[in-house]
Batch of 3 targets.
Target 1
Amino acid sequence: MNLFSPVEICPNLEPGVRIGDGWITIAYSDRPGDCGRTRYRYTIIRKDRPDLVYENLQSGVGVSRGLRDGLLSLLAFLVDAADGCRYYTMQGKKDPDPAGWPDDLCEWLYLHSEDLEYVSMSVDDNMTCIQE
């Protein structure tokens, strides 16, 4: 596998992107996806916090173009989640947190929302940032 900016090998030895003081990594899950879809495992690594590992991201039905597309989908989701966290923070409300994430992750996403957007655009612009 060849990786090009902004994708790099992260502390857990998986491809991912640096976001502020942490990383977001992507890999194929060992669990099969539903209806022939590809299931991805992603990890959110933050300084002085336990790593968060999830396997709830899947490709579209019949569409599996690899880790780059999985990473793009994940980053788009996290950008939207950061916007939701920003909205609830500005309103002085607690985020309803439909993903079941810890409260401090919502805060981390909110604090790094601009980094998430920039990295998402960079991955989108570089079709060959992950060559499998």
Target 2
Amino acid sequence: MSATHLVHDLDFTSYRELLRSLLPRASRFAVSDASGAVHCADEDFPQSAPAKVLGKASIDLRSASETMRNIRRVPLHRQVLYAAAVPIESIHDTAYLWALMPARSDADRVAKSLSSVAEALARDLNLNATLDAMATRYFAEGQDGLSQLARDCCDYMHADIAAVVDEVLAVAAELPQ
């Protein structure tokens, strides 16, 4: 499993809505894999920019200064492209969250917002990677394995119930009040 697979299957809608509320001046958002291949993006996002940015040896997003919280600013014409690393520890890979902002944006505010969303995205991608690995392992074991998968998902996700229905794992939990 790779970040490419996880990012390709990502439903970016809720992340886009969250980013729009946190960064209303942003013109476009995207998510790419470690190579810079864009899998989820707003219309008219500069598709080739992430690969160019990640391909430059002088750009290392993991060594960004603490004030930018793992965020890099890259000037792009009259705008600035911000990139946030999204580590997926469970598969030892990385995805990237991108925001295209006006040049006169508050860099600290953008970095804080983008970093927060990147952390949530990392949690979701790590969870999906772990669940995919569990499903693959248990699927090979047949019906007993699928039953064990449902039980393990309840424990792992702190859910009240999990079941395999028509080859889909359904998990439910009561929301805290």
Target 3
Amino acid sequence: MPAFLDQVFAPFLVTGVPTALEQFGFGQIFWTPAYYPHQQLEIWRPAVVDQKLHWAKNFNIQTGLIDAFNRQLAYFDPHLKHNEGFIALRAKRRPVMLVRPPDGELLKVGKTSGGLKLVRRLCVVAPLFSIVDDIGDAKVPAEFRDRVRQLEYPQFVLFPNGGPIQRDSILRLDELQSVAINNLEHTGFRLAADIEAVLRSQAAFFLTGTGGDEFVEYRELHGCPATNRTESTGFQYRLSRYRSRMSEVPVRWGFSRIELG
């Protein structure tokens, strides 16, 4: 019988998280304002523009702009170059998992002569989306939920309710975002060691198509339902190591390509 990741390893999250920036690491959980990636490009454009003083006001959202990011006039107030624009995005305060903290070594580089700002103090995070609504009803089919728990999808991980995760949620590695370090709010929780090892491996597999030893090993040991490589979602992205010295990690079950009902 297939085993679910959140059942095999417990607890899923643990406390005892460092708060010093230099000790930040993969798997720590924070709260932060996270945006929803836009499906349709929407841009804030002013209704009133002073052509001489280059100020603009009374902005509203517009779509389908022919001159998007290529206006004839730059704005001085608010400051906006002719090839820049204000994108309209929705955002929400939500839990995120830290994937990569800022690189402290960049502080040694200093300012560049060309004006490029290298030190931005940005973290790479993966957002979590609840799959249960406010009254306890599921937002996704039970079949899909269970397949995520079996790690069939390399871009998803189910986080069970607990600690800062107020409802069962899905971590999305396909929606990584950059967040300024000062916008992260500590929760005091991080992934347990065994969970962290699997997720590190899964993230490497999903983002690069290589590695993923612990991820693949877990799936093989705990019964992912796909039975061969032709059913493998994500297998087509793995790099071929034909005739190389290092053989590719064998995938016995792979990732299911069977469509949801």
